[in-house]
Amino acid sequence: MYQSDTEMLFPSRVIPTLKNLRGTAWRNLVEKVAQQEDGADGTLAFGLMMIRLNGCLSCHADSYRAMRGCTACAQQAVARFRENDDALLRLYQKAEKDIEAYLKNNTPVEV
Description:
The protein contains 5 helices and no strands. With 111 residues, it is an all-alpha fold. Helix 2 crosses helix 5 (85-105). The protein is globular and about 40 Å long.
């Protein structure tokens, strides 16, 4: 089955669709990152956070997640995240630090 919304890793085009799934702090983060160009440090960090949260590396073309598409998968992962928005923001901040370390020192990033 071909799903036009499925990509290899979390696509930044999905970021704006996540805006209204949580509280104000989350909405502010999504709005800030969605305004950045694709490939900016913020979008890279957000993408890394979502890859970790969604489990993108274990998604296969014939998996249920892939058949539903990246947008639905990401929305479900964010909506069902069991901790509060502060925990999500900490995940983003960790991803920011990981991206910064990679760009400065070529430090490998754990996913």
